[in-house]
């Protein structure tokens, strides 16, 4: 999150929306914070796009 790997065990992912190809967006929560994430299915990665998002 915010450029660092999220290793917390209290992760929650919801609101997944698939775009073109392997691209998707999701909301992730951990530690009382939320992020809008951009993900890549093939690379198996997610990168934070915005904080305090749902």
Question: How would you explain this protein's 3D organization?
Answer:
The relative contact order is 0.27. The protein has no helices and 4 strands. The two termini are 15 Å apart. It is globular, with a radius of gyration of 11 Å. A hairpin with a 4-residue loop joins strand 3 and strand 4 (45-51). The protein has one domain. The chain is mainly β and 54 residues long. Strands 1-2-3-4 form a 4-stranded antiparallel sheet, with no helix packed on it.
Give me the secondary-structure topology.
Layout lengths: L11 E7 L4 E8 L2 E8 L4 E7 L3
Antiparallel strand pairs: 1-2, 2-3, 3-4
Task: Throw out a few tags for this protein.
54 residues, mainly beta, four-stranded antiparallel sheet, 4 strands, 56% strand, globular
* Rg from Cα: 11 Å
Order of strands across the widest beta sheet?
1-2-3-4
On the 0-100 scale, what is the average pLDDT? 91
Instruction: Give the helix level as a range of percent.
Output: under 10%
What's this model, at a glance?
With 54 residues, this protein is mainly beta. The chain has strands at residues 12-18, 23-30, 33-40, 45-51.
